[in-house]
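User: Could you write out the 3D structure of this protein bound to 0WE? I've included everything you need below.
Assistant: Certainly. Input first, then the structure.
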Amino acid sequence: MGFLAGKRALIVGLASKRSIAWGVADAMHREGAELAFTYQNGKLGDRVGKLAAGFDSGINIPLDVSSDEEIKNVFAELAKTWDGLDIIVHSVGFAPKELLAGRYVDSVTREGYQIAHDISAYSFAALARESLPMLRSGGALLTMTYLGAERSIPNYNVMGPAKASLEANVRFLANDLGIDNIRVNGVSAGPIRTIAASGVGNFRKLMQHAAAGNPMKRNVTLADVGNASAFLCSDLAAGITGEILHVDCGYSTVGMTFAIDEDEEVLA
Ligand code: NAD
Ligand code: 0WE
């Protein structure tokens, strides 16, 4: 029996087979969780529906997290088939494309700042609030974050402050919901080539830099992130809340790296 047997999970942020949400759904499905999905818009509805079917799920609900009504509606819809919910995976992030280029100081605007924080950070708190009536004891909320929350990363720009806000949301929600035996955590993933990443210039170079600069000399995989996420949402992690778990092949733990094969006498 899988370590998520008997758990019901809502997955928010599935767009393709390359989505981090797909890696999480795959690991959770393998470990015996029952899954439900949301899709951002009509264009994605059919695609997400087919992916959901691949995970033995017939639940696929529209959700644009910029809409209060749609956030409320998700749980009204879910309550028609499920009498309770154990897990929410929030795997959503967005900033207007123009803000993810050039210098932060030049690109940031009031409207772009608001959109990035609304979609990428507030939406996690809003989902938590609206899900409370159906969330069961032993449940867990999980979100996906990135090192740009903690350190400046070229071009990540306004998403850095948005992820910092998201990570603070993890800690504040964890404090509120702990008494109800509901845990709240984040996974800080290393770079993965997803749809969100493919819109970013020079992402290949960033991936190479990340692999060369971490102890394992490789990039993280959807399975790496999915397995850690499944663990955090399971009873195996019953004592872990308010935490950001780095799944980045150790990139964030090193202070300096030397290139392999070069400068042999320095390494020796
Ligand atoms: P993705 O494009 O597959 O997923 C992003 C999802 O966000 C999509 O499903 C999209 O529909 C959804 N979304 C965007 N705006 C929305 C809105 N208004 N309402 C509802 N949904 C909306 O890309 P991904 O890389 O899997 O991104 C998932 C999460 O992982 C994001 O929070 C991202 O910041 C985070 N993350 C990604 C990486 C990476 O390198 N890919 C690394 C660390 C963290
Ligand atoms: O969080 C992300 C991606 C976030 C993202 C991506 C896009 C592209 C398309 C948010 N909004 C948009 N808006 C769009 O219009 N990551 C962690 C992946 C990522 O994005 C970067 C990175 C990394 C890593 C952007 C610049 C530098 C590094």
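Residues 110-131 form the longest helix (22 residues).
User: Perfect, thank you.
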